[in-house]
Design brief:
The chain is α+β, with helices and mostly antiparallel strands. The protein contains three helices and twelve strands, in the order αβββββββαββαβββ. Strands 1, 2, 3, 4, 9, 10, 11 and 12 form an eight-stranded antiparallel β-sheet that branches. It has a four-stranded antiparallel β-sheet with strand order 7-6-5-8, with no helix packed on it. The longest helix has 27 residues.
């Protein structure tokens, strides 16, 4: 009888330790996320399951998850970092006056027949309202440029609202992949 109690107690302790470890990993290192909507197509699709890494600072062209509202998280691509001057001209991204390639948009640009994929704009013409991305903020855009609620509409995103970066689709199985920048 005493031996059974000790065994049960050991199982309870092991279960408790496993739960604590799982909580720590999810709270501080990794968490799952589900893509909702079409704003990141063709890179990501509605209902893709991904793993978000909470380690490190977002870099240019990383895909990030951030708290857009109290209840809603968005998934977008980092285009501008603090202090960057962002502009689109003739469907080309300019950062601090230099043109940048966006290979993740090539397929979409080929499919568009009625004008540019990304309309021309400067930061001043967006809710950011200044010439540069403010300190402590990111300028983010969805890859589906014609159908994305992003910094062009909601302004720069405070870095402290970023949950983490993601580049691994884990579900559905036929869409498992690592996202290129």
């Amino acid at each position: 009888m005493v031996e059974n109690r000790n065994e049960i107690w050991e199982w309870i302790k092991a279960l408790f330790i496993a739960i604590v470890i799982a909580f720590i990993v999810r709270a501080f290192f990794f968490t799952p996320v589900v893509v909702e909507g079409a704003s990141m197509q063709p890179t990501l699709h509605d209902q893709n399951r991904m793993i978000v890494t909470k380690i490190g600072e977002p870099k240019r062209f990383d895909v990030v998850v951030f708290h857009a509202t109290g209840e809603k998280d968005f998934i977008k691509r980092v285009i501008g970092l603090p202090g960057d001057r962002i502009e689109y001209k003739n469907d080309t991204l300019y950062i601090n006056g230099e043109p940048y390639e966006e290979p993740y948009l090539d397929k979409s640009k080929e499919e568009v027949k009625d004008g540019p994929l990304t309309n021309s704009f400067t930061l001043k013409e967006t809710p950011v309202g200044s010439d540069v991305v403010p300190e402590g903020h990111l300028f983010v855009m969805g890859d589906n440029r014609r159908n994305s609620m992003d910094s062009r509409h909601i302004g720069a995103i405070p870095i402290d609202k970023v949950v983490g970066t993601t580049n691994v689709v884990v579900w559905p199985i036929k869409e498992i992949k690592i996202i290129d920048k």
